[in-house]
Automatic annotation (TrEMBL):
It comes from the Bacteria. Its main location: cytoplasm. 3-methyl-2-oxobutanoate binds at D45, S46, D84, K112. InterPro entries: Pantoate_hydroxy_MeTrfase (IPR003700), Pyrv/PenolPyrv_kinase-like_dom (IPR015813), Pyrv_kinase-like_dom_sf (IPR040442). One of its GO terms (molecular function) is 3-methyl-2-oxobutanoate hydroxymethyltransferase activity. This is 3-methyl-2-oxobutanoate hydroxymethyltransferase. Its cofactor is Mg(2+). Keywords: Cytoplasm, Magnesium, Metal-binding, Pantothenate biosynthesis, Transferase. Mg(2+) binds at D45, D84, E114. GO terms for biological process: pantothenate biosynthetic process. Catalyzes the reversible reaction in which hydroxymethyl group from 5,10-methylenetetrahydrofolate is transferred onto alpha-ketoisovalerate to form ketopantoate. Its EC number is 2.1.2.11. Belongs to the PanB family.
Amino acid sequence: MPAITLTTLQSLKQKGEKITMLTCYDATFAQACNEAGVEVLLVGDSLGMVLQGHDSTLPVTTAEMAYHTACVKRGNSDALILADLPFMANATLEQTMTNCAMLMQAGAHMVKVEGALWLAESIRLLAERGVPVCAHMGLTPQAVNILGGYKVQGRNENQARQMRADAISLEQAGAAMLLLECVPSELAAEISQAVSIPVIGIGAGNATDGQVLVLHDMLGLSITGRVPKFVKNFMHGQDSIQSALKAYVSEVKATTFPGIEHGFSA
Ligand code: KIV
């Protein structure tokens, strides 16, 4: 497949073709995901939980994110690499610029930052300096201690109104993509319509412009045994990791994943 760029993702949204994204933390899986046709590899700070065994993403450092981004880059040929800015790496604007530079220099094509409207200034500065940004809204796992757990966000009308308004403001600030995690399906559909940038969902229904899952979750690997409602085990009925990855791509493209049972209501 030709190299995936922001322009490719934008045109997939315009054509109504779903975008496929999976987390990826190393070179071998980067190559496997390329072969399966996954368009975006997310070097997620979920690596703190699935690789390092922590009980949250908070212990992950920018140096660790840069290390895994570089590993993914070595195995990748044509997917777009999106790297997470970890907890507190954007505590100040100066730290944001320095830490995003580390991720881009390690091989990322875009960075993902968790938050809401307060991200607008840093998104504007990053975009001006050539760094495309994906804003991660809804359930933002780095804020688990403020949110009081891994809970669905935007369920009441005030929160929903705020999230819609923030999404539009972040697009205006220069965000190139949005990621909505654990948001009622209807609200995610409205936000996807309201902005012109691609919106990727996880636990956000099937009307977003694309989907992402944590690689280990969709391969049926869980260190805790707790499987979120929005996860589907794509190893079921498959005899190899490669065919599970291909099944994920084809179900996302066909809009058969996620099903209604993987989403949340208001
Ligand atoms: O870190 C991560 O894997 C993520 C996904 C849950 C979207 O941000």
